């Protein structure tokens, strides 16, 4: 059975804080005026990517995937035990012949 190493969350917290700091610093500098052209579009896309990064780190820090991971581990254990029991009965049948 595969052992899953527990990941620490401090790295994600640091990256979240850095992304928030960059966004807070950049938002006042981005010109969201209609006639801004390329600069406005670049600023909006950059802010959207920064929000995606922030959302991803929040998703990990809040532990949304932990419940899903537990369910997947339970399914994996059930399949492994089923496979082992099937393999054991097949081996016993081969030895008796």
Topology:
Layout (H helix, E strand, L loop, with lengths): L9 H17 L11 H24 L2 H33 L1
Protein name: 2TM domain-containing protein
Keywords: Membrane, Transmembrane, Transmembrane helix
Organism: Paenibacillus motobuensis
Written overview of the protein:
The structure is a single chain. The chain is an all-alpha fold. The chain has helices spanning 10-26, 38-61, 64-96. It is elongated and about 85 Å long. The chain starts with 9 loop residues before the first helix and ends with a helix. This is 2TM domain-containing protein. Keywords: Membrane, Transmembrane, Transmembrane helix. It comes from Paenibacillus motobuensis. The chain crosses the membrane at residues 12-32, 38-62.
- Derived from helix and strand composition plus strand pairing, the structural class reads mainly alpha
Provide mean pLDDT, rounded: 82
Order of helices and strands: HHH
Q: How far from one another are the termini?
A: 31 Å
Number of helices: 3
Largest sheet: none
How much beta, percentage-wise?
under 5%
Q: Percent helix among the residues? A: over 70%
Number of strands: 0
**Low confidence ranges:** none
Q: How large is the radius of gyration?
A: 25 Å
Shape: elongated
């Amino acid at each position: 059975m595969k052992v899953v190493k527990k990941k620490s969350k401090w790295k994600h917290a640091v990256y979240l804080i850095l992304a928030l700091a960059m966004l807070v610093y950049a938002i006042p500098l981005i010109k969201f005026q209609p006639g801004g052209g390329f600069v406005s579009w670049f600023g909006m896309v950059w802010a959207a990517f920064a929000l995606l990064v922030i959302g991803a780190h929040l998703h990990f820090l809040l532990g949304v995937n932990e419940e899903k991971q537990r369910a997947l581990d339970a399914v994996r254990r059930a399949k492994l035990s089923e496979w082992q029991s099937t393999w054991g009965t097949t081996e016993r049948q081969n030895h008796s012949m």
